[in-house]
């Protein structure tokens, strides 16, 4: 058994664009474009990026909701890139997902008990009493009272619903849990509680997490590794402390600088404001060269060539021609 | 237990699957739905207790001939008058509710039984199976249901059972269309994705996850359709392709009374009035139920 729960190698997911009467293929949406990383057992990888950067598609491809276009996925020392439906069903027990919006991820016509029993029924776990015992165990695990089992989702608050979503994901004792923006639909006070719960559960059950978010302020206390995504590619990949102390990709810097601050002490911890201009380009018309050059304040002629992910002196991997120069303060914004 | 769970203990929720109190409250708000409910309950009551309500049960179902009483206008003895062979029209109209309701319920049961599973399969499976089902549905929808029913009724013998088959034949595609549309929008909901992620089969997703979310739409549609099915049945009866005399079917009764218009107006008018009121009742109730069942409007 290797130490890695997940190994992703050169993963690509393209969606064809078909146009015209004969549905001729005219191009691809490169939602996930050549991504590689490894994830150790019991750790958390945060995937960060704007809307439209391909975070969710990456997660769904890893979860095998989509068939990958290219590349390999190794899960728990096993190649799962091309497994069939039958094996996929078995695999579902080991990798689970917590969805973004708890008010739509729970079937409004079902009771909480039915929602928690569904995974057990699908995989034919135990008899009626054993399932009932497991359901009670699960609801206690997410710190909700057992009376909630007889309720409908719409009588629960957002945070409570998300706890049910987490309990459902844990029902089959998965090894890997993909958290797809689990807190983005919740208000801030509840967010913190859900994050605390997830961290406690990780310790208790030795879970491995992939944490998808657009909110960098949550990442620091939660993740071990961070991958910053832009237009389907990873532009910076490092451990969490390095990312916050030495962000080297201009895109990462601008994301960090967009975290709202309350007082001066906080603002000192963040890099100088680098406002992002404009919208993320359409993945159907990827910019040539560095994908970020259309919005990057440092961009020069050199950026017409695509940079590779390269190891920097801090140990992080960054894809930017000026990563070294930026780290030494040689480059100033606004050259263009 | 965290503070969040404690505070929300107060937030009370319904424990039952369906909140009857709230449903009644919402239905009550609209006077017209109440009128609809009143009419529908009345028609059902008439249908069930017909033998005890009517003054002349023998007139209703049989062909008793009483020339001494023929063609009498409405009176205290015969509320709706009598027909050309002296039968009490009031008795026949009350009994007619049985025929019409049975026709409506059975036609819709068949239509739902065929249409709903097809719509679910077409929506969830999609692809070639879905396209095939929906094109067949489109072909059926292109033919007006009355014309289709006329054709089937003309081929088969005009008995009540055959009429039901004839009408159902043109009715199921509406349910397929309706459910297909619902499924397409529900398919993108996260709970379907979540279910897929748990490893659920397509059958489970279709019939256990998605179908319960379609029931309210189906019930509303069925209630609204009830009136139209009764109307279609009466039209066939009027054209002589429906229930045959002496069955007290409203459409057939209008056809029989039509020749005596306008002098003996009561013979066609009262069965016609019964159709009008019943159809109106189901339509009003259907509209009311649409508001009652809309859980998403008061979800929070």
TrEMBL record, chain B:
<keyword id="KW-1133">Transmembrane helix</keyword>
<protein>
    <submittedName>
        <fullName>D-ala-D-ala transporter subunit</fullName>
    </submittedName>
</protein>
<dbReference type="GO" id="GO:0005886">
    <property type="term" value="C:plasma membrane"/>
</dbReference>
<dbReference type="Pfam" id="PF12911">
    <property type="entry name" value="OppC_N"/>
</dbReference>
<keyword id="KW-1003">Cell membrane</keyword>
<feature type="transmembrane region" description="Helical">
    <location>
        <begin position="264"/>
        <end position="286"/>
    </location>
</feature>
<dbReference type="InterPro" id="IPR000515">
    <property type="entry name" value="MetI-like"/>
</dbReference>
<dbReference type="GO" id="GO:0055085">
    <property type="term" value="P:transmembrane transport"/>
</dbReference>
<keyword id="KW-0813">Transport</keyword>
<feature type="transmembrane region" description="Helical">
    <location>
        <begin position="132"/>
        <end position="155"/>
    </location>
</feature>
<feature type="transmembrane region" description="Helical">
    <location>
        <begin position="32"/>
        <end position="54"/>
    </location>
</feature>
<keyword id="KW-0472">Membrane</keyword>
<feature type="transmembrane region" description="Helical">
    <location>
        <begin position="161"/>
        <end position="180"/>
    </location>
</feature>
<feature type="domain" description="ABC transmembrane type-1">
    <location>
        <begin position="97"/>
        <end position="286"/>
    </location>
</feature>
<feature type="transmembrane region" description="Helical">
    <location>
        <begin position="226"/>
        <end position="244"/>
    </location>
</feature>
<comment type="similarity">
    <text>Belongs to the binding-protein-dependent transport system permease family.</text>
</comment>
<feature type="transmembrane region" description="Helical">
    <location>
        <begin position="99"/>
        <end position="125"/>
    </location>
</feature>
<dbReference type="InterPro" id="IPR025966">
    <property type="entry name" value="OppC_N"/>
</dbReference>
<dbReference type="Pfam" id="PF00528">
    <property type="entry name" value="BPD_transp_1"/>
</dbReference>
<dbReference type="InterPro" id="IPR035906">
    <property type="entry name" value="MetI-like_sf"/>
</dbReference>
<keyword id="KW-0812">Transmembrane</keyword>
<dbReference type="InterPro" id="IPR050366">
    <property type="entry name" value="BP-dependent_transpt_permease"/>
</dbReference>
């Amino acid at each position: 058994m290797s130490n890695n729960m997940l190994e992703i190698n050169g993963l690509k997911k393209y969606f064809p664009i078909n146009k015209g009467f004969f549905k001729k293929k005219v191009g691809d949406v490169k939602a996930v474009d050549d991504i590689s990383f490894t994830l150790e057992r019991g750790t958390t990888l945060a995937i960060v990026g704007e809307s439209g950067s391909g975070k969710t598609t990456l997660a769904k491809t890893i979860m095998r909701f989509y068939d990958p276009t290219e590349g390999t996925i190794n899960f728990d020392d096993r190649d799962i890139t091309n497994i069939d439906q039958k094996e996929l069903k078995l695999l579902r027990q080991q990798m689970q997902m917590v969805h973004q919006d708890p008010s739509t991820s729970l079937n409004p016509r079902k009771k909480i008990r039915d929602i928690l029993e569904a995974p057990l029924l699908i995989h034919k776990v135990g008899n009626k009493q054993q399932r009932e015992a497991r359901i009670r165990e699960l609801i206690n695990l997410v710190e909700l009272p057992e009376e909630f089992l007889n309720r409908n989702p719409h009588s629960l608050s957002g945070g409570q619903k998300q706890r049910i979503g987490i309990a459902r994901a844990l029902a089959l004792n998965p090894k890997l849990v993909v958290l797809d923006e689990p807190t983005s639909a919740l208000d801030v006070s509840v967010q913190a509680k859900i994050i605390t719960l997830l961290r406690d559960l990780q310790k208790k059950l030795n879970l491995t997490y992939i944490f998808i978010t657009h909110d960098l302020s949550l990442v620091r206390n939660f993740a071990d590794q961070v991958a910053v995504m832009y237009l389907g590619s990873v532009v910076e990949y490092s451990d969490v402390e390095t990312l916050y102390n030495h962000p080297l990709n201009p895109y990462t810097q601008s994301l960090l600088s967009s975290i709202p601050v309350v007082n001066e002490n906080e603002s000192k911890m963040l890099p100088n404001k680098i406002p992002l201009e404009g919208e993320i380009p359409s993945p159907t018309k990827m910019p040539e060269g560095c994908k970020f050059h259309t919005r990057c304040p440092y961009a020069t002629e050199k950026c017409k060539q695509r940079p590779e992910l390269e190891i920097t002196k801090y140990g992080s991997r960054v894809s930017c021609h000026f990563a070294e120069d930026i780290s030494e303060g040689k480059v100033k914004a606004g050259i263009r | 237990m965290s503070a969040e769970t404690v505070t929300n203990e107060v937030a009370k929720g319904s424990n039952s699957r369906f909140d009857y109190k709230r449903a009644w409250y919402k239905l009550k708000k609209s006077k017209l739905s109440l009128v609809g409910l009143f009419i529908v309950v009345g028609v059902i009551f008439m249908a069930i207790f017909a033998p005890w309500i009517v003054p002349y049960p023998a007139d209703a179902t049989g062909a008793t001939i009483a020339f001494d009483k023929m063609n009498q206008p409405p009176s205290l003895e015969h509320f709706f008058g009598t027909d050309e062979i002296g039968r009490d029209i009031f008795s026949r109209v009350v009994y007619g509710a049985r025929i019409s309701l049975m026709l409506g319920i059975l036609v819709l049961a068949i239509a739902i039984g065929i249409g709903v599973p097809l719509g679910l399969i077409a929506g969830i499976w999609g692809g070639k199976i879905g396209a095939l089902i929906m094109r067949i549905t489109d072909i059926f929808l292109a033919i007006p249901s009355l014309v289709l029913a006329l054709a089937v009724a003309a081929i088969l013998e005009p008995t009540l059972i055959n009429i039901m088959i004839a009408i159902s034949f043109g009715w199921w595609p509406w349910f397929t269309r309706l459910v297909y549309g619902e499924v397409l929008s529900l398919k993108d909901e996260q709970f379907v994705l979540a279910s897929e992620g748990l490893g659920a089969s397509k059958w489970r997703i279709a019939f256990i996850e998605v179908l319960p979310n379609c029931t309210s739409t189906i019930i509303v549609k069925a209630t609204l359709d009830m009136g139209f099915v009764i109307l279609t049945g009466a039209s066939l009866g009027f054209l002589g392709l429906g229930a045959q005399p002496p069955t007290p079917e409203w459409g057939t009764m209008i056809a029989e009374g039509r020749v005596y218009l306008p002098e003996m107006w009561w013979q066609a008018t009262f069965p016609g009035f019964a159709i009008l009121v019943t159809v109106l009742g189901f339509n009003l109730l259907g509209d009311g139920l649409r508001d009652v069942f809309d859980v998403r409007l008061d979800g929070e």
